[in-house]
Amino acid sequence: MTEPDSSDGLPRPIDADVARAVARLNHGQREFFEERAGILEFDAGLPRAEAEREALVQTREFYGLTG
């Protein structure tokens, strides 16, 4: 189980780089990220860290974010 983020109660991403990127997302983007990560982990069978990395890519693409 991942550590909850003290600011919003959502789990802190495992990878430090992903965590820093996710910290810059707004609430709606963060919800999208968490949903994608969960789907990739449980439905696609990816390890959580890999699911979070891919979810970040998908979130950036969906919202047209860079960086």
Description:
By secondary structure, the protein is an all-alpha fold. It has one domain (16-63). Helix content is 60%, strand content 0%. It contains 3 helices and no strands. The protein has helices at 16-23, 27-42, 48-63. Helix 2 packs across helix 3. The N and C termini lie far apart (27 Å).
Topology, number of strands: 0
Report the structural category. mainly alpha
Whole-number tally of structural domains? 1
Arithmetic mean of pLDDT = 91
Helix proportion range: 55-70%
Radius of gyration: 11 Å
Q: State the end-to-end CA separation.
A: 27 Å
Q: Could you name the ranges where pLDDT drops below 50 across 5 or more consecutive residues?
A: none
Total helical elements? 3
* Percent in strands: under 5%
